[in-house]
Amino acid sequence: MVNVKGGTRPPWVGLGAAVWLQIASGNAYNFPLYSHSLKSVLGFNQQQLTMLGVANDIGENVGLIPGLVCNKFPPWVVLLIGSFSCFFGYGVLWLSLSQTVQNLPYWMLWIALCVATNSSAWFSTTVLVTNMRNFPLSRGTVAGILKGYGGLSAAVYTEVYSALLRNSSSKLLLFLALGVPALSLLMMYFIRPCTPSLGEDSSESYHFLFVQVASIVLGVYVLTTTILEDVFSLNVLVSYTLLIIMVVLLMAPLAIPVKMTFYPSNRGKLGVSDVSVQDNSSAENSEPLLTPLSSSANLGSFQEGDEISEVDMLLAEGEGAVKKKRRPRRGEDFKFTEAMVKADFWLLFLVYFFGVGSGVTVLNNLAQIGIAQGLHDTKILLSLFSFCNFVGRLGGGVISEYFVRLKAVPRTVWMTCTQVVMIITYLLFASALNGTLYAATALLGVCYGVQFTTMVPTASELFGLKHFGIIFNFMSLGNPLGAYLFSGLLAGYLYDNEAAKQHSATCLGPDCFRVTFLILAGVCGLGTVLSIVLTMRIRPVYQMLYAGGSFRLPQSSSH
């Protein structure tokens, strides 16, 4: 049984620590920062480099094992495994790129990159599952905040890469191998399950608003400093000062538990007291004739494991503690195997696959796309994508949460809208018109971010929080699957063919990726149709869950 921390302050301490770990979990976004060095130092062609990009995405998104482990063990165990994964994986890549160890085989580097970026799955699964359980009534907001910081991590790493590491790819890999595990070890104590608040609290909404504003300020700051460092030649002292300010902004969410420490809420104390009095009086008035056995005391709690023997279940049914076992309805807690036989499960997976699978293809090839269109320094392009990805993730969570509470609008509506915009964006990329590269990158970043932050709460609302870790991570497989099909097999192959026609290792001109973009536009067209179908199917579920303007926990979600 996982030890659950009580009180109103610990969940906010955990959320503040989760922000740092969510930034750390974005280590996979650094691939464009050192991919060119892998190509030049180790002599890889574009298709080999693209397949390393696939390894990067597979490691980042294959989180089925973390999803299972987070239901069986406390969060610190999951974070510890992620730390070891990060250390060994990036350590091998650093040994190869720095030429400390020479002639490591390609397959070993491929596996090392998978292991390294798989730390992202361990980190993000831990913080997302723990915090969504700590704030079950604000799932969209929490998912938007955490996924938003995750999307912003690429810009944060770019700032560290430029200011602290002086654009050195080998130093970046060493930083990832040592710095990220150290951060995880430092923060793991604060990421813990807490007693969730199941009542509406006005102060909670203000606290969330503060974190959202702080993240926006951080995003604007990081994008601005990246542009300044690219346009002007800043000295070391100025660069370090800008880096320190960024670290202070990252600590902003911790201001909430500090404020709660120095200015405790009397209303919160009275609320707890009143609830306990009411609970005691109701317990006295409805005391059962027969005392239930302890075997049924903790059935159905998503804070605990689901290891219940058949004998205990039969005893509990006989005592009337639980109803006879039945298949769950949408909105209740599903086991993974129960969710997999539902049409909505696969529709959500396919919609997410088409959206993020096409988007990650552009992200993995962003440096080459920029060079092909005549842009020599692609750092600004990566920072722009990262910032807009952050805006999409944060904004998607806020907007979907607002409309789902106002009119019970299914969150998948926003997946539909953004995939329509993605069709237009890919056509802009394919046209290669002057001045459209930055606009197309920004639009794609926003739409790509919305896919993430919409899928996460949708999966939890349709299939429950009890087994959310493994369900969410299975959905996340859409990312590496899309990277393999659309980036590894399609984009890399077409790019190398076009480069061969130019008798060069580097392809230049709009034809390098034009066919790829047209195919991706068609893929998002199919995703749009499926998203409309899914939205129509799950609309009754949202009308049930948000009938009163706020989320209602299902009456029977244990089984």
UniProtKB/TrEMBL annotation:
<feature type="transmembrane region" description="Helical">
    <location>
        <begin position="206"/>
        <end position="224"/>
    </location>
</feature>
<dbReference type="Pfam" id="PF06813">
    <property type="entry name" value="Nodulin-like"/>
</dbReference>
<dbReference type="Pfam" id="PF23262">
    <property type="entry name" value="NFD4_C"/>
</dbReference>
<feature type="transmembrane region" description="Helical">
    <location>
        <begin position="236"/>
        <end position="256"/>
    </location>
</feature>
<feature type="transmembrane region" description="Helical">
    <location>
        <begin position="107"/>
        <end position="129"/>
    </location>
</feature>
<keyword id="KW-0812">Transmembrane</keyword>
<keyword id="KW-1133">Transmembrane helix</keyword>
<feature type="transmembrane region" description="Helical">
    <location>
        <begin position="423"/>
        <end position="450"/>
    </location>
</feature>
<feature type="transmembrane region" description="Helical">
    <location>
        <begin position="345"/>
        <end position="367"/>
    </location>
</feature>
<feature type="transmembrane region" description="Helical">
    <location>
        <begin position="470"/>
        <end position="495"/>
    </location>
</feature>
<feature type="transmembrane region" description="Helical">
    <location>
        <begin position="379"/>
        <end position="403"/>
    </location>
</feature>
<feature type="transmembrane region" description="Helical">
    <location>
        <begin position="76"/>
        <end position="95"/>
    </location>
</feature>
<dbReference type="InterPro" id="IPR036259">
    <property type="entry name" value="MFS_trans_sf"/>
</dbReference>
<comment type="similarity">
    <text>Belongs to the major facilitator superfamily. Phosphate:H(+) symporter (TC 2.A.1.9) family.</text>
</comment>
<dbReference type="GO" id="GO:0016020">
    <property type="term" value="C:membrane"/>
</dbReference>
<dbReference type="InterPro" id="IPR056555">
    <property type="entry name" value="NFD4_C"/>
</dbReference>
<feature type="transmembrane region" description="Helical">
    <location>
        <begin position="515"/>
        <end position="536"/>
    </location>
</feature>
<feature type="domain" description="NFD4 C-terminal">
    <location>
        <begin position="342"/>
        <end position="542"/>
    </location>
</feature>
<keyword id="KW-0472">Membrane</keyword>
<feature type="domain" description="Nodulin-like">
    <location>
        <begin position="11"/>
        <end position="258"/>
    </location>
</feature>
<dbReference type="InterPro" id="IPR010658">
    <property type="entry name" value="Nodulin-like"/>
</dbReference>
<feature type="transmembrane region" description="Helical">
    <location>
        <begin position="172"/>
        <end position="191"/>
    </location>
</feature>
<protein>
    <recommendedName>
        <fullName>Nodulin-like domain-containing protein</fullName>
    </recommendedName>
</protein>
